[in-house]
Design brief:
Cytidine Deaminase, domain 2, 4-stranded mixed β-sheet, single chain, Immunoglobulin-like, 10-stranded mixed β-sheet, 8 helices, binds zinc ion, 529 residues, rod-shaped
């Protein structure tokens, strides 16, 4: 059955070989033309007034599958691509009709949750792709584009409308917006260049892959009736999918000459922003956006661009209605973006000096060198919180330091708060001053008392305090002699007496210390007779 459908519906056969033999490349063949919608599955969007459709969109299953699979690959940001096909008129009323033949994913885009940029490489790739198709005899125009609004409603933002201008050369340009998270989609068409930016419309599904309907977008309803397959036969092949007229050789190729390279590059597509401004919490989200912009690029230029964006969107906020989106979701996505998806930077910081010793109340200015950031500004912090640090990096040690400890001084980049560098301050207690004596000098002699008999010896020690020089001069007042602190009693003691040993400071001779020695007389019995 599939084979039959494929055979009979020749619009979207499998792509031909990329490089067919030269002999097979003939003159350009006219686009195969859809002349009837009979047997196509017809869908309309929720809330759509189908009668107001200004024209019809025909979307083959193969292109649908390409779009859905492409946009489902990464739902964390916007992705997009191009729609190739042709414009025609169908039916007795010659209704304007856009027939999409192929969806071409843009391989090189810069996307965030809120914007999408088609790069030069993408446009070049598209040029090459259409050139290849042309060589194969398939002359297709760029009838429009598609892109994702992950978890956002289906509409065209002002930024999307800017991108749409790329396709202004088309009489009936088309834009497809898909929410790959909630499985919704919708086409937007323009009459006289004006899009119904908040009124998505349905389409006709051209069964080029299977006879059963393939479309799964939840916001679309399949129309039963004369134009759809017979009611009650869902899942069965259409009774009469006789819809396609083979190529008309040399026939009507109304748009074949209208294949122009689109050289304009359309830089920015911002999807979410419009929504943000149509919802509450404008100020908060504006802050968030500008934050985000700063983090993303960190340049004044981009900042200005984002501010302009925000202003434009503020103005347009009043125009936007009928949009339902979940603010919480959007915030969550911003936070997600600010978190794990944050764009890495190459910012590096070094702090000098890396290590210093400070005593109480001493100060030192630290310097942070920031490389790779738009701003050289840093924030200074200290751990533990001993001492103080100023915004200019000047650290001051606490007024008193009881024991030695280390304080970490940290400089954090303002442009990229994930980057920082540290230095270490060693806090030292105040050193004991070794200045000239201002305090009283004193000399102490130990022991301070001794008892000796004749010929006895006693060594005394002098301790000098309050003077830098410990030297003393020993002397004796009374009998006996002293030499370097060693006192010698006289060889004979006839009567008990007390002598004084004296140590006088060499530095300050007015200061001395003393000890006493009691001399006991030699017993008479031992006195030589
Ligand atoms: Zn968008």
């Amino acid at each position: 059955m599939h084979e039959e459908a494929r055979t009979r519906i020749k619009i979207m056969t499998e792509p031909e070989p990329a490089s067919p033999p030269v002999s097979q490349v003939g003159p350009a063949v006219a686009p195969r033309k859809v002349e009837s919608l009979e047997g196509f599955w017809s869908y309309y969007c929720d809330g759509e007034d189908e009668k107001k459709r200004s024209y019809i969109v025909v979307f083959p299953q193969s292109a649908y599958r390409t779009v859905v699979e492409h946009l489902a690959e990464d739902k964390t940001r916007e992705h997009g691509g191009f729609l190739l096909g042709y414009e025609t008129h169908i039916g007795p009323g010659q209704t304007p009709t856009i027939v999409i033949e192929e969806a071409v994913p843009a391989k090189f885009t810069n996307g965030t949750p809120v914007r999408l940029t088609f790069t030069t490489d993408t446009w070049r790739g598209l040029d090459e792709h259409t050139d290849r198709l042309r060589e194969q005899g398939r002359i297709l125009q760029r009838v429009g584009w598609y892109h994702s609004h992950p978890n956002i409603s289906i509409f065209l933002s002002h930024w999307d409308l800017d991108v749409c201008k790329t396709f202004d050369q088309r009489e009936y340009p088309v834009a497809l917006v898909v929410d790959p998270v909630n499985h919704r989609g919708g086409f937007f068409v323009a009459t006289k260049k004006v899009y119904q930016a908040h009124s998505p419309q349905g389409f006709y599904e051209l069964p080029d892959l299977q006879v059963d309907p393939m479309m799964t977008w939840r916001n679309m309803t399949r129309q039963e009736g004369p134009q759809g397959p017979p009611t009650g036969q869902e899942g069965k092949p259409p009774v009469k999918p006789d819809v396609v007229v083979p190529t008309e050789p040399g026939g009507n190729t109304p748009l074949a000459t209208d294949v122009r390279p689109v050289s304009q590059r359309f830089p920015i597509i911002i999807a979410v922003l419009t929504l943000l401004f149509s919802l509450g919490g404008l100020g908060v989200l504006y802050e968030k956006q500008t934050d985000l912009a700063a983090q993303l690029k960190g340049t004044q230029q981009d900042m200005a661009s984002w501010k302009t964006t925000a202003q434009l969107l503020s103005k347009s906020a009043g125009e936007i209605d009928g949009i339902s989106a979940n603010v919480t979701d959007l915030r969550a996505r911003f936070e997600q973006f600010n978190g794990p998806h944050k764009k890495p930077t190459n910012v590096s910081i070094s702090v000098t000096p890396s290590r210093v010793d400070l005593q109480p109340s001493e100060t030192r200015v630290f310097h942070a060198k920031v490389v790779g950031a738009s701003s050289s500004e840093v924030q200074w912090t200290i751990t533990p919180n001993h001492g103080t640090i100023k915004r200019n990096g000047e650290y001051k040690a606490p007024g008193s330091i009881s024991t030695e400890e280390e304080v970490t001084v940290k400089a954090t980049s303002v442009a990229d708060p994930s980057k920082s560098s540290t230095a270490v301050v060693r806090l030292k207690p105040q050193a004991r001053k070794v200045s000239e004596p201002k305090t009283e000098v004193s000399v102490r002699v130990t022991p301070d008392h001794a008892t000796l008999a004749a010929g006895g010896k006693q060594t005394f020690t002098a301790t000098v305090t309050g003077a830098s020089e410990p030297g003393v001069t020993w002397s004796v007042e009374g009998d006996g002699t002293i030499q370097g602190g060693e006192y010698s009693a006289p060889p004979a003691v006839t009567e008990a007496k007390t002598v004084k040993v004296k140590a006088t400071s060499e530095k300050d001779p007015t200061k001395y210390g003393t000890a006493t020695v009691d001399l006991n007389p030699t017993p008479s019995a031992t006195v030589p007779n």
